[in-house]
Amino acid sequence: MSATFRKSSRLLLAMLAACLSLPLGALPAQASSWGSPQTVNSWKVINARWTANNELETYTPSCVWYDGSTLMIKTYDAGGGVYYSGRVESTASYGYGTYSFTANMPNGNGLLPAVWAAYLNPWLPEMDAAEIVGSNPGAVYQTFHDTSNNQTQFTAGNSSGWTNSFHTYSFTWWPDHIDFWVDGGFQGTKWYTTAAGVGLHFIVDTAVGGDWPGNPDSSTWATADGARYLKVSSITYTPYYP
Length: 242
Fold this sequence. Notes:
This protein has one helix at residues 3-20; strands at 33-34, 38-39, 43-45, 48-49, 57-59, 64-67, 70-79, 82-85, 87-90, 97-104, 111-118, 126-131, 139-145, 151-157, 166-173, 177-182, 185-191, 201-208, 227-241. It is globular. It has 1 helix and 19 strands.
């Protein structure tokens, strides 16, 4: 058997093994055509009391602004059980491609800062580039919620903590799966087919209280100005055309 034949055989076996490792009927999407990265900077700023998941915050435009090119979200305790925070949703919706956020997330008991995307009307599907429970800054969660709200979640750990420093959180939405990334490191794949016509809105917010992070306490607001900040220095969408 020649060396060339042996090499070709090994390559064929490796390709076959890779295909067999995929779910039945799932074939990896191929990059037919990529568009140029687009900066996402046109936002709907939410002005409403938010009660989903038993959350406590009221979103107000006064908690949202730009400092140069950095999007700022402020969260604070107004007293009497009133908490103000900020939330923005992109005015446009986007399809297949890479959704990327470079964000500095706050910590603090009872806070849930997040950078993510969802269809919104109706809500699902949802793809979370990053959520951090403020009392556990060493873990960042990346989650896919399908149209029935079945969830697949990946968790990245950081012994130094993910909060109070900038990191890049992203996912790539293909026609047949979603890949999740943190600081360029691959975290996991969810195989799932969504309709090509379903567009997602970019979303940035910090929730206060609720079922997942629990309620804030005095330590949450123990900062120089009594507030916590979510800062996003880059939000980009790179389209993929099957």
